[in-house]
Design goal:
Blueprint (H helix, E strand, L loop, with lengths): L27 E4 L5 E4 L16 E4 L5 E4 L6 E6 L6 H8 L10 E3 L5 E3 L5 E3 L5 H6 E6 L11 H17 L35 H19 L11 E5 L3 E5 L8 E6 L3 E10 L2 E7 L5 E3 L3 E3 L2
Parallel strand pairs: 3-7, 5-9, 6-9
Antiparallel strand pairs: 1-2, 4-8, 6-7, 10-13, 10-16, 11-12, 13-14, 14-15
Helix pairs in contact: 3-4
C-alpha cells in the first residue's frame, strides 16, 4: 500500500497502519492531562530545530510525565515556585510517579543548582496549559511554603544563569516581561509566562512574580550584543570545577583575590598567557583572572 505521508509503497507491519516506517517519527503522540491519547500528523520533524539540554544540569531523573516531542519550537520560559525548599533529588521523587501527572523541564534548588526532569525536546506537564507547555521551558524553583513564596538569592541567580543558557541555545534574542496576561503567545512583546495565567493559583508566588522584570533585565545584559560583527571578546564561560581561585593577574604567581564555584557563569573580556594554565581569562567585573582550563565556553 502507499504511505499516507510520502506516497511510497510499503508493507504495513500492523493492521490499519497507513504510514511507512520512515515517516512514523512524524506522528506526534498527544496526551492531555485527563489521560486521553490521540495520534495526529502535527508536523514533520524537520520543521522543528534540533533541541539540546542545558550544560548547567548537575542532577537528572527523567519523569514519565510528559507528552513526548514538542509540537512548537521553544520561544518562552515559564518559572514556577515549588512551595517548599525541595532538593533536586526531592523534585525528582515528586515527578517520578505516573499517578502524579506533573513534571517540569528543569528545577533549581536553594543553592542555584539545576536538575532536569523532562528533556527540552519534550513537553512537560507543568503549567495547566498544553499550548504554553508545548512552547515553553518550565522551571520549578525551591521556595518558602508561605506568602510571598520567597526564593534564595542563589536560586534567583541560578534562574538568571539558566535563562541565559536557554536563550543562547534556542536563539531567543531577548527576554521580555510586561506582566500582561493578554500578551500570551505574542513573543515579540512578552516571552515569559506564569502558571497563574492558566489556572487559579498563586504560582510562581509574589516574590518571583515581582522580580521577573529584574530577571529579564539581568539576562538581557548578558545577551545584548551591540556589535554588528562579533569580536573574540567578550564571551561567556561556566565554571566546571567545584571551586576555582581568581587571581590579581594571569598566572599562579599572582595573589589570590577570591573563589568562584561550579555552574556560575562569567564574562571573559581578555585572554593572556601565564604560568599554571594553558590560558588565563580576565573577568569582566575586574575582580581578577581565572584559569580557562577549568571552564566551559558557552559562546
Amino acid at each position: 500500500m502507499k504511505c499516507s505521508l510520502c506516497s511510497k509503497d510499503f508493507i504495513p507491519g500492523v493492521e490499519e497502519q497507513d504510514t511507512c516506517e520512515q515517516c512514523l517519527p512524524s506522528l506526534i503522540r498527544l496526551t492531555d492531562n485527563k489521560g486521553k491519547d490521540e495520534y495526529q500528523v502535527d508536523y514533520l520533524m524537520d520543521d522543528i530545530p534540533e533541541m539540546s539540554n542545558s550544560p548547567l544540569v548537575s542532577y537528572t531523573r527523567l519523569s514519565p510525565n510528559n507528552s513526548g516531542l514538542r509540537t512548537h519550537k521553544i520561544d518562552t520560559i515559564t518559572p514556577h515556585c515549588v512551595v517548599g525548599h525541595a532538593s533536586l533529588q526531592t523534585l525528582g521523587n515528586i515527578f517520578a510517579p505516573i499517578e502524579r501527572r506533573a513534571s517540569s523541564n528543569y528545577g533549581i534548588d536553594d543553592h542555584g543548582n539545576v536538575g532536569m526532569y523532562v528533556e527540552e525536546k519534550n513537553r512537560s506537564w507543568c503549567s495547566s496549559s498544553e499550548s504554553n507547555d508545548q512552547r515553553a521551558i518550565t522551571i520549578e524553583i525551591a521556595s518558602d511554603n508561605f506568602y510571598p513564596y520567597k526564593i534564595t538569592d542563589k536560586a534567583l541567580n541560578g534562574l538568571i544563569n539558566l535563562c541565559v543558557d536557554i536563550c543562547l541555545r534556542n536563539n531567543i534574542p531577548k527576554l521580555l516581561w510586561k506582566a500582561d496576561k493578554s500578551l500570551i503567545g505574542q513573543i515579540d512583546k512578552q516571552n515569559i509566562t506564569v502558571h497563574r495565567w492558566f489556572s487559579p493559583r498563586e504560582c510562581p508566588g509574589e516574590y518571583i512574580y515581582e522580580n521577573l522584570g529584574m530577571v529579564a533585565d539581568e539576562v538581557n545584559k548578558i545577551l545584548y550584543k551591540p556589535e554588528i560583527v562579533l569580536p573574540k571578546f567578550p564571551y561567556l564561560v561556566i565554571i566546571d570545577t567545584y571551586a576555582l581561585n581568581y587571581r590579581c593577574g594571569p598566572g599562579m604567581n599572582h595573589p589570590i583575590n577570591g573563589v568562584v564555584h561550579r555552574n556560575e557563569v562569567y564574562t571573559i573580556v581578555e585572554e593572556a598567557d601565564g604560568p599554571g594554565a594553558s590560558k588565563w581569562g580576565r573577568l569582566k567585573s575586574g575582580a581578577g583572572w581565572i584559569s580557562l582550563d577549568f571552564v566551559k565556553k558557552m559562546r
